[in-house]
TrEMBL record:
Residue intervals passing through the bilayer: none
Top-level taxonomic group: Eukaryota
Xref: InterPro entries: Glyco_trans_31 (IPR002659)
Organism: Naematelia encephala
Protein name as annotated: Hexosyltransferase
Region annotation Disordered: where it falls in the sequence: 59-87, 389-427
Length: 427
């Protein structure tokens, strides 16, 4: 019986180099080889890119750690050699001519929008809960990575404020985007945002603004925009504040005196409250950014204005003063309340029961120490540290007109360093 027929003839072994070469050059084999090579090349490129991203991330972190001093210090910018340029308006904020000009030019959105005297302020603090407002909305500017500072304030500072009179929120922006959307940094940012949202859900005292967190990129205007939108509407709106305050997260506000400062003010007038003590004379009339407040009509007017970026960025406290200069002095006069030297850096003030705010509490232990110091001063004066026992504002204003000795020394030091140019630094 013959063997069954074979479907394919037997293959001869490839014995010579030319035979092997002809085999590799067959179309089917060449295609497979090319595909295998491309797959291998792509895999290698992905591995190289991931390694480069990790190396870049670690090197940038090392660079920041080695060059950026984040330790609190009492040294002013003048000591770094920047003071003279700052005084002349030549600091990093104002190198661009467009930005410098923007502090003087008018803004169409502010001029054409609904003016403060047309907005009004009907905010009851008693009666129907659905229409009841608060005396002050306090926004404490924080950053996403400052969880420990927020926890410190939650434990030490925020319990001072009665919630029926003051709404307190930490104001944050988004963490910066990584240079590469697919990288270890991008994964870290996503995880960080989840932690932020978890903290927001846990405490309910945070506002996350839709912008990269940078005080020089218009964060203050975004804050006022959020407040104006959150409590917008005709008639009375639940939770609407009579006054809106912006404060730094290294400022301790003396709660009884803050309540006393606002409780008898008419919020339908254009109240601008804060301190000019120690401000720069370069930008005209404004209150320092450590803590300042405005009445609801002003905040609604500013927050509702769709201003160009050039009119919202850089030097946020001076920028607020620039916005207010748009108002018609006849129909919308400004009621400025300057608390003077009862607000300022804690190491420059004569602290007493008249003090309204202590600034420059950079270290956590300084926050605790200065708060304890305030409580002791009030206890020594036999005055309860409560919202019913604040010092009359006229007494704080009167004391604020006197420049403390330590502030005088600091002013002279800055003059000696060349920071005071043509009266730039106000004593």
């Amino acid at each position: 019986m013959s063997s069954p027929a074979q479907a394919y003839p037997p293959q001869r072994p490839l014995t010579t180099f030319s035979q092997r070469l002809r085999y590799l050059l067959r179309p089917s084999v060449r295609l497979k080889t090319t595909l295998y090579s491309l797959t291998l090349a792509i895999a290698l490129l992905v591995l190289v890119a991931l390694n480069a991203a990790r190396a870049s991330s670690s090197s940038s972190t090392t660079s920041v750690d080695s060059t950026l001093n984040t330790s609190p210090t009492q040294i002013s910018p003048a000591d770094s050699g920047e003071g003279h340029d700052v005084a002349q308006g030549k600091d990093a904020h104002l190198l661009e001519e467009e930005i410098q000009r923007s502090f003087e030019e008018p803004d169409f959105a502010l001029l054409s929008g609904k003016q403060p005297h047309e907005i009004g302020c009907d905010v009851p603090l008693h009666g129907d809960e659905s229409q009841r407002g608060v005396l002050v909305f306090l926004g404490i500017f924080s950053a996403a990575d400052k969880r420990s500072r927020r926890d410190l304030y939650r434990r030490v500072i925020l319990p001072d404020f009665p919630p029926h009179l003051v709404t307190v929120k930490f104001i944050l922006g988004l963490p910066p985007y990584p240079e590469k959307p697919i990288s270890a940094d991008a994964i870290s940012r996503s995880q960080f945002l989840r932690q932020i949202h978890a903290e927001m859900d846990e405490f309910g005292d945070m506002v996350l603004l839709p912008m990269i967190d940078n005080i020089d990129l218009g964060k203050t205007h975004e804050y006022f925009k959020w407040v104006a939108n959150e409590y917008a509407g005709p008639g009375r709106v639940k939770g609407r504040p009579r006054f809106v305050m912006k404060a730094d997260d290294d400022t301790i506000l003396v709660m009884p005196n803050v309540i006393s400062a606002f409780k008898d003010l008419d919020c339908s007038t254009n109240v601008y409250w804060g301190t000019s003590a120690g401000r720069s004379g370069y930008f005209g009339d404004y209150f320092r950014g450590l803590a300042y407040a405005m009445s609801w009509p002003l905040v609604s007017w500013i927050g509702s204005a769709d201003m160009p970026l050039a009119h919202t960025i850089k030097i946020e406290d001076a920028r607020t003063g620039q916005w207010l200069r748009h108002l018609d002095p006849i129909t919308d006069p400004i009621h400025r309340i300057d608390m003077g030297w009862t607000m300022g850096d804690w190491n420059q003030l004569d602290v007493g029961v008249e003090t309204v705010a202590l600034h420059w509490c950079k270290l956590d232990e300084w926050v605790q120490d200065q708060h304890d110091r305030l409580l002791q001063i009030w206890a020594d004066a036999d005055r309860p540290y409560s919202h019913e026992h604040g010092v009359a504002p006229r007494l704080s204003i009167q004391k604020g007109r006197m420049t403390p000795e330590e502030a005088e020394k600091e002013h002279q030091r800055q003059k000696d360093l060349g920071w005071d140019v043509q009266g730039n630094v106000h004593p």
